[in-house]
Amino acid sequence: MRILLTGGAGFIGSHLLQRLLRERVAEQVVTLDSLTYAGNRSRIAFAQGDPSHRFVHGDLTDEALLEELFATYDFDLVLHLAAETHVDRSLEDPRPFLRSNVLGVSALLESARRAWQGASPARRFLHVSTDEVYGEVPAGRPPVAEGAPYAPRNPYAASKAAGDHLVRAAMESHGFPAILTHATNNYGSGQHAEKFLPRLMRKAARGENLPVYGEGRERRCWLAVEDHCEALLTIAQGGRVGSAYHIAGDDEWSNRELASEVLRMMRALVPEAEGAELEFVENRPGHDARYALDDSRLRKELGWRPKVKFEDGLRRMARAVLRGRADWIREDEKRRGGPPAK
Questions:
Q1: What's the pLDDT tens digit per position in 79-134?
Q2: 254-288 pLDDT per residue, tens
Q3: Residue 318: is its pLDDT beyond 90?
Q4: 3-class DSSP state of 248
Q5: CA distance 266 to 156
Q6: Residue 19 near residue 79 (C-beta atoms within 8 A)
Q7: CB 208, CB 272: distance < 8 Å
């Protein structure tokens, strides 16, 4: 098997690449990443020297590059994870999200479609999406199942919804062999510092207050990145082409509850966290009250279950954040213009 992995230098993509190489899933894996703020080559340093892996620095909208890659490697499977993902950034400027999550998806679909015309029916395109395309699920409502109507409420979610529709249009118009996935919030080692959990952990380790939007009542379901990657491979290998699968963790928390848990855990790990408290700040626009996915199809059809207990995964993540403390302290100093005067 020959695999194209987009976004492989990102948080989830790097974990997936590690698993692909460790388990020798393919004879060749090509990682394509544009290395924006969320992509970091250091995340995939483990792949250096592996003859079954090649890294390509490039943009999804570069159709000439995509066509060259498909012609050179004749991919059997595309794992499409590349995306702009941070809601707050999309509220400030949605244009990069449209470029990556809409135009990039379109270019990748067209390149794969042209390359795969008349090829083996075993080819597959796995498009990784998000629970946010469905909009908020009010308290008391059951989790949403596959096929529920889309109702995105922020530019990030809208851009992902548009990309999903392009994939479905390719399936309907051309019989394109795609599968869609939607996952709940991921967490784990190597997550970008602007995301909710690593941001809180770093703040606590500095003895700073932990910012929580509004009253912290918004609820999210959390999924360990290792469990997400296992689900993606399970679906890529055994899922039904033309289907969509939801991937959900078993742990739903309000942001306030989870911030309190992070603070408790960090206080047990570093003395600086003793001085930190929760700090409730102005809520962001269009902040969805709750996301919840029904993933019974995945569990029944393919037998997947999350394995990582949330408390264990959260503790491992906190320790990983602290192991990188020297690096992010240097980053802080660089942003401030140097270390503070003694």
A1: 999 999 888 899 999 999 999 999 999 999 999 999 999 777 789 999 999 999 99
A2: 999 999 999 999 999 999 999 999 999 999 888 88
A3: yes
A4: coil
A5: 30
A6: no
A7: no
Length of the chain, please?
Answer: 342
| CA separation for the pair 266, 75 (Å, rounded) | 44
Question: How confident is the model at residue 336, as a pLDDT?
Answer: 60
Place of tokens 């679906």: 235
Helix (H) or strand (E) holding 253: strand 251-254
Cα–Cα distances (Å) from 57 to 34, 54, 64, 108, 195, in that order, read 5, 10, 14, 15, 24
**Number of neighbours of residue 236 by Cβ within 10 angstroms:** 20
Q: What tokens does 129 get?
A: 């999406």
Written as six digits, the tokens of 179 are 């599968």
Active site residues: 131-132, 156
pLDDT at 121: 79
Cβ(170)–Cβ(112) under 8 Å?
Answer: no
Cβ-Cβ contacts under 8 Å for 278 (sequence gap 6 or more): 209, 210, 212, 216, 256, 259, 260, 263
The whole-number pLDDT of residue 328 equals: 74
Amino acid at 27: E
> b/e map of 297-326 (b: 16 or more CB within 10 Å)?
bbbeeeebebebebeebbebbbeebbeeee
